[in-house]
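Task: fold both queries, return tokens.
Query 1:
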Amino acid sequence: MNAPKPAMHRQWRTLEELALLPEDAGEFPAGSSEWPDDMSRRRFLQLMAGSLALAGTVGCTRQPREEIVPYVRQPEELTLGKPLWFATAMELGGDAFGLLVRSDSGRPTKIDGNPDHPATLGRSNVHMQAALLTLYDPARSQTLMHTGAPATWEDLLGALTTQSARWKMNGGAGLRLLTRRIGSPTLRAQIDRLLAKYPQAKWHEHDATFPESPMPARLHLERADVILSLDAHIFGAGALSPSAALHFAKRRRSDEKMCRLYAVESMPSLTGAMADHRRAIPPAEIVDLARKLAAAVRDPAWNTDPWIAAVARDLASHRKSGVVVAGDFQPPEVHRAARAVNEVLGNVGTTIEYTAPEPRAASLAELVNAMNGGEVESLVVLGGNPGYDAPADLGFATALGKVPFTLHHGLYPDETSARCAWHLPESHFLEAWGDAVARDGLLSIVQPLIEPLYPSKSAHELLAALLFDIPTDGYEIIRAAWRQRLVGEGFEAAWRKVLHNGIAPSSGEKQKPAPEISDVTVSSAPSSPDANLALVIRPDPYLLDGRFAENAWLQELPRPFTKLTWENAAHLSPRTAQRLGVAHGDVVDLSYRGRKLRAPVWILPGHADDCVTVHLGNGRTRAGDVGTGCGFNAFALQTSDAPWGGSGLELRKTGERHVFSTTQEHQRMEEREPVRVVTKGATTVAADEPAPSETLYPPVEYMGAAWGMVIDLNACIGCSACTIACQAENNLPVVGREQVLRGREMHWIRVDAYFSGSAEAPQMLHQPVPCMHCENAPCEVVCPTAATVHDHEGLNLMVYNRCIGTRY
């Protein structure tokens, strides 16, 4: 019996390839081996002469004499050349992610997930891997500043003493505290004590990346057979990743019963690319789809479109094993519809658990109104950067100038610190003691691995100063707080056990069940049709709201599907671009609610029609040498009443053109099929498969194991965590936007993006391309999602089942 013929689909990477334009480029980008046009022979000789002169000057100088002290007694736990691993945690969006950090001779050198922590399960994402570069970034704040001049910690304590005398007299009236989302129970307790000490003071919260969900929930994708994502970035930067990606990958590897994923979204995402069935629609239609789905699940005979009817039948046939997930950027109506479906089908308590919303602090808008009204005399900004990421309609920067006493606490001298009287350098989480709680309530200790590289203070130490507590040392603050938690056994033994494991027994934080809702009502009134363009605002996949803009690894990490680096763009669908008469690379003016923004156009296959997506996090004006001036600032269009966009966008061509720094066309292999898609069980032999003799390398007779790599593309979500992990492990440099434009980059592992089908509704694929030239065989660049080794005809195959972090 003949083997089934494979279902082959031609893959394409750009719209130009899809249009079958002539492919006259070679293996390397055009101009990559030629002399740059902007570099003349005269200029080259000038630079070389200058380099030689500087080298000679350095060689003729004598370094200042320094006294060094050798080990008198080497630490017992330290063996030179042998690394140590320490458990700690990273807080992102108010949730804890357990980490294991490698330390070589007292210096952190590599970050991975803690296998015992439920939020990571031994995995990591790009932000955890890249946190190492932030630690060693010389652009970090290095000096406490007062009105632009260096100051000391004692100077700040003196100023706080003067302010506290006023707070005691009026009960803290005029004192305001502004923070991002906080997941540290100890820090929350300190804030509660501050508000109790000064009853008239207020705490405000603003986080431009992690909004508070109207119905927070915990997912159990390991139990889900059918998943519907309503613009939910399940594999993004929040609390659902990377453990959610791991559970999903395990279900995709099941030969008996694989889970099925549906996705509804406007902008292509990692979740949508993994979906078996994806629907791209504008934001307003997502609300209507959620309402119709809830009605179809309650009444299967309800008349609706075929796609919704099919999804409703699939969910209904998998009661208690299906789940509907609403995205954090969706309005409350979508969350109510998703919960209604989960309630009706009995999914609550099995595949999803709803929890009670956390007590909310006052909003940023309330703070701005108070500052404009002269009600704020002292403002302490703890960790955020509202001078950059506040919605444009609030006018935060103007209002900040009306506050007499302002103190900013942050890692970098940024847009907010430039407008505050005081700026206090913040300690990196690898330099400071702290604690954090995961989404499931598990507590973790944030344990430092190195002394602060610069004079800095943690948030705990700053709050202790505001409270005039004793002690003010971070270690003593955390130890005292945990002495009250670790009861029932000897504290010292329990404390050391927590430090060793990185986790502690659940405290019940974030585990409070949501109020019982027997019938979640969903409005049946359809949204009014929108004939205008809609604006979609989302955080950058890697820079988020700009907090990682100074991280060069993340700036140069190619974005999903576009492979953009060092900038952002206004994304449109091919059909919408054609209707508006704009081409790829056109510079346009975006007008929204009386505000304008100039941006280049990127025509993206799979994008929803009649809407434009822009990403936050770029356009920084004070982000150091790396992040300043990259791209445009999409916060200029954000409003406080509709932070994630809305209808009424106008687009006008300017006549200008823009060249993008993208890696999408780098290292193309023309006239070959680098990606092959076949149906399950099909076998094929590629016609263009090179013969074993067609190689530039001499034959090698392996005496031991020969190593090869197999990547399960049915499980790889294309998150690029392996790229950053490789960059961190090998200390690879970045090349900058100019060199990316010339086709040069230093990534040893990359994740290519391919499309198949039509430009309006393509199938999106990820193709990891790893480096295999390492002399140390095996290289062991292993994605730690249950990677296994198989012996196949004498060849050991490292099976890479999921690209969610790496363990070297």
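Query 1 returned. Query 2:
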Amino acid sequence: MKFALFSAAAVCSLVAAMPALAQEGQVEEVIVTARAGATEQRRVEASYAITTVPQATLRLQSPPSVAEVLKNVPGFWVEASGGVGGANIRARGIPIEGTAALSLQEDGLPVQHDGGLGFLNSDFSFRYDEGVERVEVVRGGPSSIFASYAPGGVINFITRKPTQAFEGVAKVEVGDYGYGRADLWMGAVVDGVRLGLGGFYRNSQGVRDPGFTADDGGQFRFSIGKDLGDRGSIDFNIKHIDDNTIFYLPVPLTFDSKGDTAEVPGFDALYGTFAGPETRNLTLRTNSGPFPFDLSRGADLKLTQYTLDGRYELGAGFELIEKLRYKDATLVRAGLFPNTPLTATARIAQAVASVPAALGPVTGRLVYANGLQPFDTAGQNGNGLVMDAFVRQQDIKLSEWINDTRLQRRFDFGGQSHDVAIGFYYADVEERFRQQGAAVLIDVQDQARLLSLTAVNAAGQTVATFTENGFSRYGTQFNNAEGKSKTVALYASDEWRLGSKLRIDLGFRWERIEFTGRNERSATVNLNQSATAADDSAIVGTGVYDLLDREYDDWGATAGVNYQLQPDFGVFARYTKAFRLPSLGDLITSPTRVDARLQGIDLAEGGVKFQRRLFSLYATGFYTGFDSQGFTETRFDQATNAFVSRTEFASTKAYGIEVEGMVRPVSWFDLTVTGTLQNPTLGDFIFNERVAKVAGACPATTDTPTAGADCLRQRDFSGNQQIRTPKISGRIVPGVTLLDGKLRVQGELQYYGKRYSDIANTLTIPSYYLVNMQVRYDFSERLSLFGNVTNLTNEIGLTEGNPRAGQFISGEAGARYYLARPELGRAFRASLLYRW
């Protein structure tokens, strides 16, 4: 709370204290995202909240992922600790994971029609490089009118277009964690034809070193375009990504004597990862033969994208805009997913309890699978802990056509004007999804090792073997599905100007989606391929498919009012009736085959905008209400060595305020402040869960028995804080520019308030600060040196808990050991950039 109050007070005091700054000329920030208009519109004139991130900021920060870019944006909660892709991003308390409520775009067209397509978040499908000119991020507002699956906003990466005979930039970057990267972009205008070529290549051991290459690959892009005289333009580009990136997962933690977050002995919370050489290459048993698993593939993306973008003046003031994109992608995600640590003694006792009494007294024996060295149950690795972790691989193939056709014209009459647009959107998506999983018994240390667990009798003879080559269970998960979706949408907008100061912005969208496909049913069987217990209960495909054939449609509308008191000062208000249609990912990738529902969303916002070169302020109040959001957990039950899945539905709401401010009191110093204060809560969230009888009777905490053998327990989480989302977050960036602009040094202080790992709000994720620093030195107009330090103080800031311990009620609440994913440890990077 103190941070938020400080941020708000700082910005407000700057407004009052610096009237002289109004003498400076205004800044022209023209925006193109989430609007359709024949005339230009500056950011300060928009009737919705939008943040722009210029190329100069991007170069200073050198963001390794989309998530890192979005830390510049208030109203967004971003978990960027997982690596290049797969980040959890939430906008204004919208309770949807990943990028499923956001449209990630490149030059105004989605890089992926559905941003949350089940294990394929749209940030996997995009890479930032020097070909990006700037980023525009819209929060709420008209986003859902101009894009599908976008109630939370639109993130638009706008690429460069050549403007000279020959120009370009080359950059070489290195880091202290075996990081190396080279970027290139060059373009030319030859006989009126624009030609662009660029991309990057990157290789890294990773801040959390797995003992093999963590990130390896890059991107290539080529563009060609031409202006059609005064009538318009046409551009075509090709982009190819071939990139392997590691996906970081939670690590083990404990508490110190004060109850604060602390490292587990033997595991470095800032630089450690369970992934390692011993778990890199494994072979899983399945009912269709051996399945090779390669952990070093991480998120292995192969993507080719073709885009056509044209504008043409039809005459009589009408302009036709056509955007067409085809994408073909395959993504293999291979990960080692940890589970709650437990003592080796407890794990041995659990296994021994399953041995038939007829075999007589037995003792558990735990050794390393590679080398058979005994495991010291009292203090191996300084902790004596083990866990059943999960090796899991998803194979996804995606192809899609996306088309957006728009006709727009400005009409002037009676001292008023209407900037009108009518659009047609079409998306044809085809996805193939397959998932295999198994459990491995490992120790708790950096680059964990595999363990073997057996039971021996009094004579020292092995009477039961619970693992095979470190596997404690084959077939923990299985999915095999394919599906298609066809989306058609019609939209319209009108920017109605009533004089020089007042403008009313209206928008409407109707959308329809059709799904077809099939899901293979699964069953639990004994593979009978091993003498151990590891293959006794494997989940496998049955060869029987459930067919998918559904369709949904809905509509949304928005109305905004902007009053421009002065060219550089305005106020606005907006209401949007938004919606989100079911996702193909909901229907073919969920192990519970989620009951897909239409989601109605109410969005309201209002704010003030002031923009000058020496001072700016954007402050927005907002409200978000969901009528029905599905909350799903897939929790591992240690007692049964199996996953348990369930889904419940509830309404949610969030209200708050976002602030962006900048002040430059002198030519060499500036201060930027962004902050969010919000209250994201659940609405009515009451449900019954089944509880097994104990000694033939229902536990005292349950209600009447069901018709079967179980009892019912009522849960009421109404009004609880939404998981993962902090009430308070913010960022302060002081900077100095010296030596006639050659030297730029700035720091970042980021703050994130406490959150909860579970819906019951029993497991707290504590608040934390993060300190970063950036520096730039220009040797000349062409040559620049950049330096970047992240997490300068090595803060163990937790971004998420352990979803596999239960997202409704965490099984790790009150536990001595638990899992969470901290920010990455301190890392240094430096780059040399040359322009021509």
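Both queries returned. Flag for query 2: Helices lie at 2-17, 55-61, 66-69, 143-146, 344-352, 584-588.
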